[in-house]
## 1
Amino acid sequence: MKEWKLIDTERVYHSKYMSLFNDKVMLPTGQKITYTRAELKDFVTVLPIIGNKIVMIEIFRYPANRLSLEIPSGYVENGEEPRECARRELEEEAGYKVGKLRSLGWFNPWTRSIRKAHLFLAEDLTKGTQRPDETEQIEVKLLSTEEIRKKLETNKITHAPTIIALQKYLLMQLDYARR
Amino acid sequence: MKEWKLIDTERVYHSKYMSLFNDKVMLPTGQKITYTRAELKDFVTVLPIIGNKIVMIEIFRYPANRLSLEIPSGYVENGEEPRECARRELEEEAGYKVGKLRSLGWFNPWTRSIRKAHLFLAEDLTKGTQRPDETEQIEVKLLSTEEIRKKLETNKITHAPTIIALQKYLLMQLDYARR
């Protein structure tokens, strides 16, 4: 593997959510280019299961100006473990406390950043206290596996982390069904 | 659905790849906040199939400083249709011309932007000419469905668009297998 060599870097944007850097790098060919790299907080996405239903939230997404059907997600705060974050976000957004929390791995949402999205499966839920942020208008919805399958097939779910978690869950279910 | 009301906007960052805006908005509660919104080019991700193998590429990703196992992806250029883009990227990155191209829908990679990622399934492939960008160090790899399944299960694939496309393909395969 031939690595790129960092020559110089400049921070060109900074906010609470994101920093952007123009990295001047040398490619293995010797050519010099500028690559824009982003730094963003990691986040978690939690798939909560009650009986044979999946707990989803319908949340208003401002850039698209529409409601989006998702599972709970949120930024990992400084000093927080992803697992803690998953428990916190599930209670804040959907109003459930988690009994059993199982990691479903992680993925990289954007190649310009090393940001990680951690996936969890949450089971043995009990009622907690929903307390969404001021910016969150959330309605909780329980859906069956069959409803999820149809919504995925007809492109009614467009939130990437939700799609990854739900498809993973369906694959797990189908695999069990074959045994 | 209660929409947010845009009061004012300021562009705080701009490059060839991305613009960032601080939108001052009024929430349905009457409270005013600043929301950082991004504008980015749409992209396509193409899942190429040859016989019973999936064509993947191993590509160097600079921010993570490692090789990543992915399927071909790329920005939709101005004036280009997503389907054209899929054909172009597949030939540029993996060196194959597409016979049959089928849409697998789209998703939204990042909630701060309305950017769309369009997914395609490419079949009836013939050899074309690979011509990667100067920044792309690419090795083409053919994998079986079983190899893909294992790599997904063991978190060896972390590129979100690739995961979504491969999971979708596995679900399609399992569904067929059940009939």
## 2
Amino acid sequence: MKETVIIELEKPKLKNPVLIVGLPGKGNVGRVAVGYLVHQLGARKLAELYSPFFFHFVMIHENLIHMLRNEFYYHRGDKRDFIFLIGDCQTYDPKAHYEISGKILEYVAKFGCKEVITIAGFETGRIVEKPSVLGTATDEEIVKKFEKSGIDFDPSKHVSTIVGTAGILIGLSKLYGMKGLCLLGETSGFPIVTDPNAAEAVLEKLQKIVGLKVDLKKLKEKVKEMHAFIRKLETLQEEAMRMMKSKVKKSEELKYIG
Amino acid sequence: MKETVIIELEKPKLKNPVLIVGLPGKGNVGRVAVGYLVHQLGARKLAELYSPFFFHFVMIHENLIHMLRNEFYYHRGDKRDFIFLIGDCQTYDPKAHYEISGKILEYVAKFGCKEVITIAGFETGRIVEKPSVLGTATDEEIVKKFEKSGIDFDPSKHVSTIVGTAGILIGLSKLYGMKGLCLLGETSGFPIVTDPNAAEAVLEKLQKIVGLKVDLKKLKEKVKEMHAFIRKLETLQEEAMRMMKSKVKKSEELKYIG
Amino acid sequence: MKETVIIELEKPKLKNPVLIVGLPGKGNVGRVAVGYLVHQLGARKLAELYSPFFFHFVMIHENLIHMLRNEFYYHRGDKRDFIFLIGDCQTYDPKAHYEISGKILEYVAKFGCKEVITIAGFETGRIVEKPSVLGTATDEEIVKKFEKSGIDFDPSKHVSTIVGTAGILIGLSKLYGMKGLCLLGETSGFPIVTDPNAAEAVLEKLQKIVGLKVDLKKLKEKVKEMHAFIRKLETLQEEAMRMMKSKVKKSEELKYIG
Amino acid sequence: MKETVIIELEKPKLKNPVLIVGLPGKGNVGRVAVGYLVHQLGARKLAELYSPFFFHFVMIHENLIHMLRNEFYYHRGDKRDFIFLIGDCQTYDPKAHYEISGKILEYVAKFGCKEVITIAGFETGRIVEKPSVLGTATDEEIVKKFEKSGIDFDPSKHVSTIVGTAGILIGLSKLYGMKGLCLLGETSGFPIVTDPNAAEAVLEKLQKIVGLKVDLKKLKEKVKEMHAFIRKLETLQEEAMRMMKSKVKKSEELKYIG
């Protein structure tokens, strides 16, 4: 496996689908928000994405081997269909964000997808009751379309970049003839694994925009359930990254392999 | 040589072969266990695997050039055949575990291989007379099949990941339509090069599972023979890795090359 | 996106075009000089270059997503045409300077381009009223041709290498059957973002050589306009590079993604 | 340029050529020895090798752009022909030693080359009048053939690995159906750029083996001439490597590019 692969599980026809992406990141806002949608909508698994640029370990989960992956789900809506992308991880390799984003966009393009929304968090260092939601897009047109939705399309006062796949996906979407939007939920940035408040704030705006109506009442409960798994994943990846970057201590690192 | 290559030495027809993998790692449990099987069974060399992601040196062994490699062997059993994979090293490059594992699986798939077993060690920090053997698999079905073999299929209390090729091979095996099992032998983790006790414990379980009957009496003796070569290999690789990660000291590193 | 791509926006026929390259670097001499030409000449956008070897973030600029890129422009001259290359960044990856330079040269070769001029800065640690301009080329012939232009073709007393795309482009140009010239403007090297004096000095020489006549009076004013954007880009890239090279601090780096 | 390329300048037919390789390394023994042969024999340039895995700068040499490269030369002998490979540098990237070595072997295979000899240095920390020459090969047969030549084919007491292209070339040669030999000249390892004594010692043995008769009297004089260029190259590469591995100092590294 020399490059990122997408293993297709189903080949449905989809009606003008929008891709909604929630990968791990700050406060796990995107991961938690989109994971909740997938769960509540009972969305069907569409495909799995594996990459040599994910960490070089497999996780033992419920005593079985779990390989790091991203997962596509789909849901049939009334007016249009939805593709969701969630996952265990992002790549640790800067250039691989481009490869993986390209693969994702090529894949959803086959379903006629023309719009991509990624969800992430932004840190403010303060805890608020009602987190704000920032938006930024590839085109002025999108901003115009949604500026009355309560999304703050003047993000520059808080953020100047979107790092990783959540950003590169949007940036590249334009090259694939798509329109891209990134929604950022305010999160304190304190060492918390998941921030359901931020996820909820983003989901409220997102649902308005794309025409979904999922009850958000069970979000906190669901986040609690996801918490242990996400926390474990994070800890393992942090360890792996520290190992990859650390200097070798004699007789130690090589033994670590295998 | 831009990617991992497998040089085929023979092209036998094999009967429902199982791949059994023992690469260097903690306590060299896998390397020693599978190396012993290859030796005692008089298994024939099937192929050699070379990778640009192995270290960039050749070793001088018995005064000849020895290039770092992994080796495939095969053995004809009564009911089914066996492919063994052993080797001098694993890659130092995280992404290359995926490339190398993919090449291995593609290769054995040509022989109709449907099952992969990797052997590795896990550290407990204590020395025990009778090391325990943990197991984890890609499918619940495998666990069911072997849970009465004395393998502990509840590994989570001791290990949460399997790092390197031993793990990625099992994880990827599913994508190649195979079933994967990893057996982990308990080893102290004290700075020892090889742990014949852990290897013996794993071999006892492995033989039951796959239907091999190799006398394990000569294992300790054989491990002693392998010891010097394995130790030399390890030392050289540790040095190479330290060199690769260290900062350059003026007039030093470049001179090291060649 | 596994490799650098050039997205063509127009496909004009060009008359014996010369490629003039000004990418970010010391004092941003090249970026500012060529950016000014593009602006004053009203050159048309020809193509955009994107690379997985640019940083893995998108920038938020004027509240829209801005993906890091290089841009080709063209201008029709009296006797010959011009292709300009400017951009937000260079790659951080040593080998990618070769890939990107190769892509650039293949692209301009399609227009019949036979000459490449890159512009960069060299540091002297002193502030001068009239910065000197050094030149170095692939062929003695070019030196002969322009040695009376006031360019100092004896650069060795100040510089011994040209690092990055400005250098590799010239080096590779020979392999593509082209002739290459690098012009270096003297800049103090003090922590300034842009050095309009150096840019002006180079532009004076460049215009003589290639037969352009752009009024340089508005250069300082234009540089002031570009300043904020260039400064922001630089700060973000410095942060990204520091992040990429730094050791991981627990619970920090992974959260940074997304 | 995504991978190593060899630019062919001539396409001669060669008679059973042997490849003799002298790249930069310890004491520059190989570089100096083979460079001297090329010069004294008036060998003709055959091809140039460029690689994206060489450093990302061009050197200014005699006020022209000099791109880092390796060079093939050929010389017609009485009984057989010779291909020489010398160069400015080796790659800094571990995996690229494999790519570059593979390209070299594929290229010389087209001329019917069946034998490869690489020349390098080994350090002993002592200064001797008459440096010893060690040898190690891919096959016992080669050892047998040359063991009466005064080459010490019991290198293990001094060296346990051959690092870089000098080693990987020999290791890979076997996979290309060739036989490989590495000759190592004893050098003190003190901070000297070039060691003509070691080069002379190796050349004496090499000439016997391959049937060359080049007067070695002018070697020291010639090494003096090469000294300045080699020293400059080394200093620049050391700086580049230090830069690549160092942590970024704010506002510094990015400015260094270009």
## 3
Amino acid sequence: MRFELTKEYLDALRSAIAQQDVAWMKEHVFELHHADIGGIVDELEKEEAGYVYGLLDEETQGDLLMELDEDLREYLISTFSTKEIAEQIEQMDSDDAADLISELPEEKVEEIISYMTDNDAAEDIVDLLNYDPDTAGGLMQKEYIQAQIDWPVNRCVVELRKQAEDVEKIFTIYVVDDENKLVGFLSLKSLLFANPTTKISTLYRSKNMISVKTSDDSESVAKTMEKYDLVSVPVVNLQNKLVGRITIDDVVDVIMDEADKDFQMASGISENIESSDTVWRISRARMPWLLIGLLGGVFGAQVISGFEGGISEVPALAFFIPLITAMGGNVGVQSSAIVVQSLARGTDQFGSIFKKIGKEAVVAVINGLALSAVIYGIALIFDSSTLGLVVSLSLFTVIMFAAVFGTLIPLILDKYKIDPALATGPFITTLNDVLGLFIYLTIGMIMYGI
Amino acid sequence: MRFELTKEYLDALRSAIAQQDVAWMKEHVFELHHADIGGIVDELEKEEAGYVYGLLDEETQGDLLMELDEDLREYLISTFSTKEIAEQIEQMDSDDAADLISELPEEKVEEIISYMTDNDAAEDIVDLLNYDPDTAGGLMQKEYIQAQIDWPVNRCVVELRKQAEDVEKIFTIYVVDDENKLVGFLSLKSLLFANPTTKISTLYRSKNMISVKTSDDSESVAKTMEKYDLVSVPVVNLQNKLVGRITIDDVVDVIMDEADKDFQMASGISENIESSDTVWRISRARMPWLLIGLLGGVFGAQVISGFEGGISEVPALAFFIPLITAMGGNVGVQSSAIVVQSLARGTDQFGSIFKKIGKEAVVAVINGLALSAVIYGIALIFDSSTLGLVVSLSLFTVIMFAAVFGTLIPLILDKYKIDPALATGPFITTLNDVLGLFIYLTIGMIMYGI
């Protein structure tokens, strides 16, 4: 039932391509779901992929194009004539078509649009190109079904039949007034079971009608759809006129991209990259954080050099430098991760900052006491009881500071509308390194009486 | 149109509750979407929440219960009689009902089921309780619409009308044969526009019918629905008989939980916790990784103590210990994050391990050279050109090792079916700390000729 891509399959396909064995591909490739074909084509060399793509029917080509890797898509498009691109675009949903066009150079766009034979589709795309891609307007498609509130059911069915040609999946029928303002919705189910002469105005529901505005950002659209368990949401303009709809599959992509971005940012990667990107792009995306880490290390070196005399006298103090910095970093990252997540989820928004920090401090006291006790015992073995005291006292202090900073920094960033995911990862680690060193060496100097 | 929860609103509600002002609540609370009511109730004290909950109509109560915080839900249920719980459950979708029941003590379950008046619903729930909650069986609901392949459209509409009473959202009609085996699907749209005497067998589609098995794990269900852009997917048993369906809203929750889990694991938190959990639970979830970090620090101390003589002679060597360990950690986390993500997404599955490591190594050379050059200059200022050489040479070596280990370890974990998200975060950082120290101090000893 479901297709599984294997190495054997790919080898067989490759040799079929080499032999131009179209019959094999007809049986083993063309009958598959376009998502599977996309997965296959992405694994081929560009020339092979172009060959297979060219053999597909127009509808599948249209479904496929926006699902391919960007590099491959660029290559394929470079092999098409403007007229061919226009034909492909007419096969696509309006949101995908607009996304594709916005990737093309501007001078080509006008030419492509002029080649389109379906005037309505062309107009829809031109309209969609106006919106910022990270807003509801940029996510929405023009394929939706609407009914006028004063229609009877039988007229509605006739009108819908016309509209439904372009709309692959109908989830909800949006009900509008004579000014095209959104007033409510109607399920296909209620239409199916209704009397033909019943007026839509008695069937439709307006209570709890959820819609989004074209200018809402993608993340807030995703949150809305998730909160209200929606599979599609109507998009209205400032006058509350219905202009499009957003379906859940596009929003799932937004949610996953957002999660990826947070994960990467917490791992110290500043641009959204994939493992298939070029080494230059990957290197560049990592550099900013590494430079911050380097700077932190230099500050750390400065702190230690300030205590050079002490370390010459008690070299054992140097032993536990990595332990102190590592633990400060770990605790800081843990504390910030929880805050970052609850901010991203929008949960717990009314707890006060002081309550959160208080809670983190209690957790830090529990963990700090336990870990300090363990390390006191271990440090005794290494050197003297003085060293044990220095290390365990510093560790406890560092854990307390790290927990408080780890909680505070993402909250502050959020207050100033900076993505708090920045706070987890290298930034907090670096800050805690420098602070931890200072605490540790100061306590050391005092306890050793240097 | 959309409700926004503010502090002022909460204050007004609190005083309405104190004064038992039901009229205010009728106007300002009860008309809201149940998701909004859930958000409000979660912010109240338990007694307040229980009072508001008790005033809601049964349908809203049913919709709400599984969306509330677990603590609050437990409290509410403890205030209900067994009969009341049974009534609530009859208002819920079967998947939510089964989830609720599975949270209750076993001896209570039988009693609740016996109180249910709707026999079919009770049977559905008993059936759903058999499945592991992390599988398709555990996610699915019994509310779906099915049609027999040999029915004509008009019979189908009549039968569907009966079935549809229990099904809030119909996305697809599943078509089965006379043995209840899934053979294809039918859109409501095609039914709406079809001739009443047309047979379903000529209308339904079987090509690219995607289904999942009851035993498929939740993550694979999520991946399937995301890949094929599905809003609902039918669930079949081993005999390919239709037993349920899974809707996208439940899968969005799975996707978000999975992303949360990965993010927390990468941040060194071993259980899935929320900021509202108790301090004991939070402390416990963080302890394992902190202990690993501590152990790493102790190993690090051991490494440094092995070089004690050298550090007494050249105390400046100690200055750059935090820099070396921090950079090793940062590079390791960056490298592993990309691998972990591409593994989680299932992309790039056919690139060989060696190719991946090769690419990481090239990135590491680029970044390593750049950073080493910077640090050479800085270290010169601190001390001698020897120290500059030691630090820059070590930094380059550590970056290379960290990149290779960061790539390799998640791939190895994945090979042995261990969640590779474990590899990002403290584990890799700790390993690179110890390794980095050893490299740095060894190079130092050699260059200073100690």
## 4
Amino acid sequence: MKETIVKVIKKVELGDPILIEGLPGVGHVGKLVAEHLVEELNAEKIIEIYSPHFPPQVLINDDFTADLVKNEVYAYKSDTKEDILIVVGDHQCVTNEGHYEITGIILDISQEYSVKRIYTLGGYGTGQLTESGTVLGAVNNTDMVEEMKGYGIEFRDNEPAGGIVGVSGLLLGMSKFVDIDAACLMGITSGYLVDPKSAQAVLSVLSKILDLEINTQALEDRAKDMERIIAKIVEMEQMQMQHDVGTDEDLRYIG
Amino acid sequence: MKETIVKVIKKVELGDPILIEGLPGVGHVGKLVAEHLVEELNAEKIIEIYSPHFPPQVLINDDFTADLVKNEVYAYKSDTKEDILIVVGDHQCVTNEGHYEITGIILDISQEYSVKRIYTLGGYGTGQLTESGTVLGAVNNTDMVEEMKGYGIEFRDNEPAGGIVGVSGLLLGMSKFVDIDAACLMGITSGYLVDPKSAQAVLSVLSKILDLEINTQALEDRAKDMERIIAKIVEMEQMQMQHDVGTDEDLRYIG
Amino acid sequence: MKETIVKVIKKVELGDPILIEGLPGVGHVGKLVAEHLVEELNAEKIIEIYSPHFPPQVLINDDFTADLVKNEVYAYKSDTKEDILIVVGDHQCVTNEGHYEITGIILDISQEYSVKRIYTLGGYGTGQLTESGTVLGAVNNTDMVEEMKGYGIEFRDNEPAGGIVGVSGLLLGMSKFVDIDAACLMGITSGYLVDPKSAQAVLSVLSKILDLEINTQALEDRAKDMERIIAKIVEMEQMQMQHDVGTDEDLRYIG
Amino acid sequence: MKETIVKVIKKVELGDPILIEGLPGVGHVGKLVAEHLVEELNAEKIIEIYSPHFPPQVLINDDFTADLVKNEVYAYKSDTKEDILIVVGDHQCVTNEGHYEITGIILDISQEYSVKRIYTLGGYGTGQLTESGTVLGAVNNTDMVEEMKGYGIEFRDNEPAGGIVGVSGLLLGMSKFVDIDAACLMGITSGYLVDPKSAQAVLSVLSKILDLEINTQALEDRAKDMERIIAKIVEMEQMQMQHDVGTDEDLRYIG
């Protein structure tokens, strides 16, 4: 395997679908949302992407079988709402060129399926452990800004300051070349931990956009687990601070 | 040399052989077992693989000649038992793409020789200096799990947690595409040191699988040397700890 | 996108133009000057260069749209003076090979437009926060040295000691192969901070070379902002030094 | 420039020459010897090699012109002794694959010129600042060992322990494939500093092999400069040690 392999598992008929991308990234926000959607919509796997630009690694399944690191595309066919393609994966590429190549492949698939709009999902790390529920936006077509604001997405001057890195960013930049509208939805998150709470915020916005009611119980459960972990971290930090103060006081006696 | 070179040294006739891979990795467990097998079975070198993805380096032999870093395939023809191909090597690739390419080459060879099953050998690092003799397994076909358990191989939920990295992992993942059953046998090891004791455990399991009696004296000797080294390390650590305690006590007098 | 893309936006008629390159580098001196020129001359964008060797990233514009990282070529057509091509960009390549490829592309463009001379702009980091206004030179043709000295450019033995890295350097080295004269103008700078003051010095020299009067107000404003920031840093350093001395004195009382 | 370029400057007639390689490496021993040979033999440049695998950089000459990083081949035609090809260069490649490619190119040149033997020159770092004058050897053909010992070259079991890295090593490993005898001569050196003293030792051995008398004044001068620098370093280290002891004594008074 010297080249990236696009393995088509099934061809499906879709009507000008929406494509949603949620690969691993800051706080795993995009990945959590996209995988939740695949599960709740009971979407069907149609494509697997293997690449020498992914880490040279297999992951072990629950039945003790090993699977190559890969990206996958799932399809959801709706009778009454929008058809949807969802891109998920275990890892992003580890080489610079790989990010560009995988993005190109997702856009080829988008053109083949006449995708009419792309939403890329991610997290925006602030370095603060406080939650906000804010979803930040960026687009590839300024006409979309007002519409997105209508869904509660915020647009802030000069944010994200460093731009958007990885496939979520490149899809936004490269979709312009093939005339597909695209937006990136970024859940505000600390950037230190997997953040199902921020994923809930992104999912909530996305549900409005897609006009779908999606059960969020699984994300809520994970968010509650995470809250307990964060409370524990904060508690330990406070204890550490008191201990540090204590130590300083002890030190004064040495003088 | 801009491309990987597969140098066929000799063509041999084998009857649907088993392929065993033991390249350098955690605790050099796989390498120790595979090289021991080559020596004890007096297997014959049939292929050398050179690649610009290997480190740009030569190693010096006992007769002061230098050899390019390479991977090698040895063949063992048996009158009564399974024929065997064994993959060994000085190094794994240093580029991401190289791992995928070398794995593809090993699978090409496997198909050419009608290999019926692949065993990849490695170590599973626990961070503990205690020995266990446990051999952990992963497969590419869930039907193999019960058979492997019969040989004393353990299967544990979510282990190895990080998956399996390098050719041992990729062979497991990619052999599915060419319909060859494969299992990875991982000796539990500290991950800090070359571990002939763990290699003995893997070799013992592999001997049962292959129904071969293999002299393990050489591995036992190396294991005893290693035990002495580990005892020395533990002793030094204890002395260091006592010394640290001593220093702490001295410090109290300053107060 | 597996290959670098040169997107021609517009063909223009120019008379043996001069090409000026100012990509990001030490103190962003070259980038500041080249972008200032584009703005003041109201130059027209004629080419965009996209590459998998650039960081896999988009940058966010003021209208919340995202743009792929790219390099750009602008054209300035003059009635009375030299026509000019200006190369600017957000980033340089992140791979080794990319620098060579982008330089080759700029030279292809130079040949297509019959460029008669190339000026590459950069900073030369000294590690000192003192300003000097000096512009250091290097050429690809020793005949140019005296002419360049006439514009106030200094040539110093063995400087820059480490050579010139990136596209500014490679353009100098590779333009010889296509018989185009080239000079690199390097503003002396600390190397720690974006340096609009050093950019002013380079712009001043370049204006003389091009026989153009260029409004430098924007650069002057940025330089004044930067002076305030540097004054603040120096002040903080002095306070820190006094504090350190204070601490040392305190420590003496412990003895 | 997306590919490595071999620029033939001049074709020369040579009688089965010897090829000597001295690119930058440990202590720059090989580079010092090879460049000294080029100068003393007044050898003629016949080939320049440019590559996107070299650092993206130009170096500045004494006349303020800039040259791309490159490797070069020089030819020396003798009336009475062996003809010689000498490979020198500013840098080695910065990519893994580049080392293999440049080595392949040197071997292509060797075959074109019917090279009958290759000597690669380097340093062997011991981590000690003591000089020894020892030259260590490795070969690609065990028949050469006795001959090399006759020139005072030492062969030691398991040294260099880590093998030989870079073009000097790869030439040894890959020359076997084209049936050219090769030896690597390594001057023992600290590995911390440029070492003209070790270069003198290697040059002395090489002069015997080539049956040439070579003026070593330039290397001797550089060696004397280096001795003064090392003496200074040793002196400073001793002062530092005394100072440290002093500080420790002062500290005792605190208790």
